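Narrative of accomplishments. A recurring question from our advisory board has been how the design workflow behaves on a single, concrete structure rather than in aggregate. To address it, we present the structure tokens for one chain from the evaluation set, followed by the sequence designed for it. No filtering or post-editing was applied between the two.
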């Protein structure tokens, strides 16, 4: 049974059976995180990084050291930079770029376009699919019309969208993104209210999404839902 646990900010843990996938794992510097880094020791199978800003790359390197069998999924150029800088073994790296699915241990992974910035390689979103459930984590992004293509190609059941404004979409823009993506079962707001710079009223997003006929799912940091 697939489960999703929001860890605050953009950090998201997805579980399929006995496989754990974490996306954008900022834990130590995440004021909302309900867990400490040691919670993940020998407890992760795949680490996905959408881009290299500190609040998304987060504790990736420490987590890879704590989970010697875990694999890193990110753009090839970011992977190559991290591998060279931190001496990561290539057998722990899943080479990829924006495109089609890569299957790892029964879990299908893909990277998508995102409109944002990063230092090494381009920013991305991520698709994670297994057990008949497909999740789209948009990473950090502004609104872009190609989200329609992401919705048409990957047909996500759930979408996690940043709504904090300033660095990403705000609640209004994210509600337009929901129309583009058309998540079939629910949309989860992320990347908001971590700090004052991205403080918004999440109820604005909820109202806009409900008015469009979609299902907003507002999670508290640490909350787990069954998908």
């Amino acid at each position: 049974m697939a489960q999703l646990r929001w860890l605050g900010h953009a950090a998201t843990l997805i579980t399929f059976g006995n496989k754990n996938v974490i996306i954008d794992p900022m834990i130590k510097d995440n004021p909302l995180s309900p867990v400490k880094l040691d919670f993940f020791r020998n407890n992760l199978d795949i680490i996905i990084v959408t881009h290299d800003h500190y609040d998304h790359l987060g504790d990736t390197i420490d987590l890879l050291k704590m989970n010697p069998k875990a694999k890193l999924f990110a753009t090839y150029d970011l992977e190559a930079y991290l591998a060279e800088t931190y001496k990561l073994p290539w057998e722990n790296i899943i080479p990829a770029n924006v495109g089609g699915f890569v299957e790892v241990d029964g879990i299908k992974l893909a990277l998508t376009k995102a409109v944002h910035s990063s230092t090494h390689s381009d920013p991305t979103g991520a698709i994670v699919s297994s057990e008949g459930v497909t999740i789209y984590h948009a990473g950090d992004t502004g609104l872009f019309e190609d989200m329609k293509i992401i919705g048409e190609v990957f047909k996500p059941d759930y979408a996690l969208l940043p709504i904090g404004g300033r660095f990403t979409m705000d609640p209004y823009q994210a509600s337009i993104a929901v129309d583009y993506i058309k998540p079939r079962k629910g949309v989860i707001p992320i990347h908001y209210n971590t700090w004052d710079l991205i403080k918004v009223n999440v109820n604005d997003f909820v109202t806009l999404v409900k008015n469009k006929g979609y299902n907003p799912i507002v999670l508290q940091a640490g909350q787990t839902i069954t998908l």
